[in-house]
Design a protein that fits this description.
alpha/beta, four-stranded mixed sheet, 8 strands, PhnB-like, methyltransferase, ubiquinone, Glyas_Bleomycin-R_OHBP_Dase, transferase
């Protein structure tokens, strides 16, 4: 298997809902594993997600998990998940789904560099950047 780089998102108890939401947005195959599956059956963590992975038809991989007690969930502006390409219809579809119920900081519109770009934070607090490349002449 080749090396890969992909985002790994941390959640405060709602990883299942978030990962299922991303499955609705991007399609693909979602695998979720709970803490209960790995020896913590009789704890409050039993149904929480220890590891989740979404593999999409477009080749995206998105991973995520619930943050267990005792570990700090560092929410902040130190990352964004970026989607880019030249398939206008596909990327606008992702944008619509990701921004619904969230907040838009930069509307998805043509920018000074010629591409269509927008920034939003989804309803789970994850920041996204979408860039639709201008057609090459």
């Amino acid at each position: 298997m080749a090396s890969r780089l992909n985002p790994y998102l941390s959640f405060d108890g709602n990883a299942r809902q978030a990962m299922e939401f991303y499955e609705e947005v991007f399609g693909g195959t979602l695998a979720l594993h709970t803490f209960g599956e790995f020896g913590q059956k009789d704890t409050p963590l039993a149904d929480k997600i220890m590891h989740g992975r979404l593999e999409t038809p477009s080749g995206f991989t998105l991973m995520g998990a619930d943050t267990p007690p005792g570990m700090e969930l560092a929410k902040g502006a130190n990352f964004s998940v970026s989607l880019s390409g030249d398939d206008d219809t596909e990327l606008r579809g992702y944008w619509e789904k990701l921004s619904t119920g969230g907040s838009v900081s930069v509307p998805l519109e043509k920018q000074m560099w010629g591409d269509v770009f927008g920034m939003c934070t989804d309803r789970f607090g994850i920041p996204w950047m979408v860039n639709i490349s201008r057609p090459q002449s």
